Amino acid sequence: MKLLFEKDIHGSNSFSFPEPNIPDTVDVAIPEEFLRTSRLGIPELAEVETVRHYTALSKLAFGVDDGSYPLGSCTMKYSPKICESIAQLPGFADIHPYQSPLTVQGALKLLDELQEVLAQLTGTDRFTLQPAAGAHGELCGIMIVRAYHKSRGTDGQRRVVLVPDSAHGTNPATASAVGYQVRVVKSGQDGLVDLDDLKSKLGDDIAALMLTNPNTVGLFEKNILEISRLVHESGGLLYYDGANLNAIVGVARPGDMGFDVCHVNLHKTFATPHGGGGPGAGGVGVKEFLAPFLPSPTIERDEDGFYSFGTNLPESIGKIKTFYGNFGVCVKAYTYIRLLGYDGLRAVAQNSVLNANYLKKTLSEYYDIPFDVICKHEFVATNARQAKKGIRTLDIAKRLIDFGYHPPTIYFPLIVGEAMMFEPTETESKERLDELASAMKTIAEECENEPDRVKGAPYTTVIGRVDETLAARKPILKYTIE
Amino acid sequence: MQYIPNPKNKIDEMLSVLGLSSLSDLFNDIPFEIRQKCVSVNDKPGESELEVRRHLEQLAQENWSAEDAPIFLGAGCYDHYIPAAVDYLLKRSEFSTSYTPYQPEISQGILQGIFEYQSLICRLTEMDVANASLYCGGSALAAACRIASEATKKRKVLLPTSLHPEYAQIVKSAGIADFYETVDVPIIDAASAVPSGVIDLNILDSILDEDTAAVVIPYPNFYGCLEPVGAIIEKVRAKTKALVIMSVDPFALALLKPPGQWGADIAVGDAQVLGNRMSFGGPHLGFMAVTEKLLRKIPGRLVGQTVDDRGNRSFVLTLQAREQHIRREKANSNICSNQALCALATSMYLALIGPDALKQAAEIAHRLTNYAKQRFQQAGFHLRYSAPVFREFAISLDRPTEANEFLLENGIIGGYELNDALLFALTEKRTREEVDELVDAMIEFSFPGKKTGEGAGENVK
Amino acid sequence: MMNIPQNLLYSKEHEWVRFEGNKAYIGISDYAQHHLGDIVFVDLPELGTEFDAMTEAAVVESVKAVSPVFCPVAGKVVEINAELLDSPEKVNEDPYASFLFAVETDGTGKDNLLSASDYTPLCEEE
User: Fold this and answer.
1) Quick check: A99 and B14 CB within 8 A?
2) What is the mean pLDDT of chain A?
3) What is the CATH number of the domain that holds B215?
4) Given CB atoms, is C93 within the 8 Å cutoff of chain A?
5) Whose CA is closest to A267, among A142, A129, A369?
6) Which of A274, A213, A282, A209 is nearest to A247 (CA)?
7) Contacts of A411 in chain C (CB under 8 A)
8) ipTM of the complex
9) Separation CA B156–CA B175 (nearest Å)
10) Would the CB atoms of A473 and C61 count as touching at under 8 Å?
11) pTM of the prediction?
12) Tell me, what CATH number does C22's domain have?
């Protein structure tokens, strides 16, 4: 498909603005040294052509509204449309962040209530909605950890953040982005944190342990209370990566497991759409003793119920994002939570776990499942049986596209070779899961009988497999006229 | 209201396949004492769609939106016009409900959209390489400062006091990682005459040294003023190996000389102004563009052009080995989700209004700004700063908060409150009549009894 | 079958070393390039940088993996193979002709290196 730039027709765009009726005496000159002398390289298209361009592009994309999207660790659930329409209301979408609090009481009330309900759901005491994404929430949380250690004079000594080998890449990257060294804790044969290995890595140099629970192979870290005791005894804090909260929302709370700081991905558990890679929102909850370190500003409510911003926060980590976070995303999450209520959220966890276990059970007939116990919202399968025919996980994933599904997450977690990580979410019906399982069964049969068919997939897409090596060796990152 | 498609009988059927009798059996691996604490924390029931809509519409009505009153606030977030087709196209759920395009075969639409966005940012900034977006202008600047410290192996990052205060705070907060230390560079802000409001070149010269990793130039600066970019860069190049980071307003680049032409090493900024609604401060998007030399240092996603196994031009996420999911603790950033849909909105906006109307919008905003400035001055107000401005300027006032309250009483959302001034922004959405109302109200506030529409002829301060 | 030339020494981390007087040329073994897959980028040290034995000196990247390259012997970088910056695929094509960098060394660390015959089992075990 042609690029915007290749549809450039000079004189075809007639968009214009009304000229203000301003006297000629107004001096408009910008000093010459500041003026752009080069042509503004934006293509010219008629409105109809731009609309067709993006409509055509949309047809080359695949969203949850197009079909099942069992992308592990990403919680690709259905996003209710009412949430979208609410976020578009001018009273939310067309307000300026620096308006007087007098004129934004509704917005502040919404943020305050959302913070409160998220604190309740996570078992934390105070919440901030400033982080713009999950990884940004991690950054915020680990900055809070570091500020806490600084306040106690233990920052110089506590230089290490522990991260399991099964962790999302964001965990170690976050720790080092806050200036910590990373020490990896091994997983045991059962896919859970190896307690002996953890003990051997704890010490008075530990600032925190970052943990996802359920973890990235979809298993609940059932020793969490012991892990919490060990980490706290060593003087470290416990950080909860909320990427997998969908599995336990309304059933169990990170705060009750001993976590001191946690982030929540509103774009996963709370159904705000992923937008092709963002925007998300990654609010952070903390236990009371860490509240002084939360980013600035906070939302305050006085006795009369009047909301304002609090900025007198001497120990705060400061700011991590302009203004107050991805407010528009928060509006959608708040709307979702009101729709579901607490029981509805618990049903989310229950059905996401039910769907994952049901799919695992049906797939286990054709694919190897390394940890075949009751899982939470996701599970890992592998190509071990198909590998005998030279089939890689990548091949299976690509073939699944031909059956109308988005593939699972592949090659993650790293502790399982050739992993395929399925997360069906609660918004898939039994019929959909049966169809997905049936497609996976057909692929397993193809692997056996006509492996080349699988290796050559996909066949139904506008493009075939792409040359990633070429893309990386000779990067072309923008359009240039040939 | 729930969004679980399985009715109870299907759920029971699935449970029986698993050999379980109830949904709670699925959670027996969670210690009982943890589950028990969760039982009664909240009993708020769900609501119907209509109830929720009523409630949320009520909350929305408690806010004054740009539809309710003319708005003269800027300070990093602007009320620009967005063509109707942007919101219309953004509703395509193939865009909004997809994930990061990890599977190129079914994500060409998103990938090409981001590739076009990268190309457009490169053209606006005239830099070599742009990434697929960051969270916001402030966090993009913090990321740029980290790049500078790593690329130069130096520690000092120079932040002028004319930088957006929130951007400065974000850079300083990220400093907790100890990759760099920040040094404030004062602007010319003498108490007596009207100061210029831009970086003091003499003081800058005395601060620049061999340990300087980066010099940040806001363009225009927080007060709308145009910094002496050429002279600053000349001094930086003469004395240091520091990188020049320009924190730019991309809307201004319709008229202003782009950072690439000035010779910047990194350009960052917030592209909210290009097609994204204000939304109380987010979601917006940070952009980053760098020189070819810094290609491998740029954080976040990059989409590259390649070919598929049938020889078609195609697009794919590339240079991923820089990123957290591969490089883990050695990654130069932890970013995963970015602001992809906002980036798409920016591309749509630019394509829909095109180069001529973008330039026209910038010119209208600039002329309205000058008109407002002139009217304020004729009425006897003083400019807070004297340097040339784009789209924003500050008026000296003793009581800016009270002035804003007075404006609000008159149905006007006023300016950004500085200690001793109000900072007003004018977009192409404002009209001459609205500017007149603003100035007249300000005259009424500052010179009670004076007839509006004529000069007061005396000092306000 | 992995190519493991007899005339080179090897580290346990799959670097090869060729000594020429007090200069040591360093690259990655056939086994290492094979496991990484198509190499798309190499990051080389700056001339004059000094390394202790077995400290990280360079990086090789494939599409979906990154691997540090250690400097198996202590020394100061006196030469880099700048050709690889533009043509990283040469490491895949002929890993032993494609040194990454060379150090001037007093030989510290040499004793821990393996001969081809001692190195061969390492490529079979993993």
Assistant:
1) no
2) 96
3) 3.40.640.10
4) no
5) A129
6) A213
7) 64
8) 0.97
9) 11
10) no
11) 0.96
12) 2.40.50.100
